[in-house]
Amino acid sequence: MSPTATATETPAASAATRPYSRRISQIERGYLNAAATGTPQLIQMVIGGEGRIGPDELRAAVRAATLAAPGLAVRRRGAAWRADGSVPPVVGLPAAAGFDHPFFHRDLDVVAGPVCEVGLAEGPVMTRLVFRASHIVTDGRGLRNWIEDVFRVLRGEEPVGAADTVDDAHFRAAAGTVPAAPAPARVEGFPAVLGHGPADGTPLWLRRSVPACPSAVTARVAAAVSRRLGTESGRLIVPVDLRRHDRSVRSTANLTSQLVLDLHRNDRWNRLHGQLLGAMLRKREVAVLDRDFLRSNPFANSLREARELDGSRFPCTAILTDHGRIDTELYRTDRFRPTEYFTLPMLVPYAEMFLSTCQIGDRTELTLSCRNRPGAAEAAEAVLDEVERGLVDAD
């Protein structure tokens, strides 16, 4: 198999209807600004299993899924995304490729493309697929919708598709009455707890599989993080999928807003869980859309401010995202049985760490990303130790 292989037919050329196009939303502009600091804004989902998926059949499935969900074949054209490029390429990887392989670290260009690609590592028994997409144009739910269609095609089924072109304004209206919410106060920044000194610019990823699946995972992870704070307080971001306000929408767009929560040392998980539930009941993730996030957010209001963050202090302690329960049967074919699923969270300029969770069977999969610098690996392992204790003790 060649190092890269790209399908040549474009969704725009193949579609019988008007080519897919949608405006760049406020949420997506925030990610464009983050990417301008030089920090790749990527979603990476990894599915491994027993058996084989051939490169040619994978290319064909990727093409068919993208024709049904052209939002993952877009390019930036002025103030809009347009599906006028090739479908996501399939890239051959060595069977033993680790997270230090350049494939996991290279950025995706939203102007030149592609905005999405698939890595395929074929071993003698195991196969691993890596689905990478720019977080500027999609989010976790959007990418999973597309991945599920790829596997539908591999099973000989029709893709469901995701051709809707709505943006965050649609969900402002769909949410109905939303109480106004005050903007979180700006903070000077909290001292770093995951290593010190210069970083090499790449994410350090640590994984942990915990034999427990308790309720309120996000709140329990947050409480564990609070036990490692270097001061009496910290701050969290919890991403929230806006699709919950209109579940009929099928879109691969970046439709994730955020909740900002204050954290206290040795916080209780039930207090944090109540705070999260209360914020969602009040639709705080929608209320934030009514603010000018580029000028009134609590983290960095300009590229200059973002670049001044030197790694010694962070206005956000951690981003916590839970992908929920993963039905691995969605990724099964006649010749492939999935045995692992996890994500590789990105670095965020103003956040010290990013923790991603999901539940598979009777276990919780954790991945933590942080800056690769002296002392970071040991400190991050200590955070994962706290998280594991919090999840296991809850069960």
**Overall mean pLDDT:** 91
Distance between the termini: 46 Å
Widest β-sheet, arrangement of strands:
1-6-7-8-3-15
Rg over C-alpha atoms, rounded to the nearest angstrom: 20 Å
In a few lines, what is going on in this structure?
This protein is an alpha+beta fold and 395 residues long.
Spell out the key features of this protein.
alpha+beta; globular
Written description of the protein model:
This protein is α+β, with helices and mostly antiparallel strands. The protein contains 11 helices and 17 strands. The chain has helices at 11-14, 26-35, 55-68, 140-154, 168-174, 217-226, 269-281, 284-287, 293-296, 303-307, 376-394, and strands spanning 4-5, 21-23, 42-51, 75-77, 80-82, 90-93, 116-122, 126-134, 190-191, 203-210, 233-241, 256-264, 313-314, 316-325, 336-343, 351-360, 363-371. β4 and β5 (80-82) form a beta hairpin. α3 crosses α4, α6 packs across α7 and α6 crosses α11 (376-394). It starts with a strand and ends with a helix.
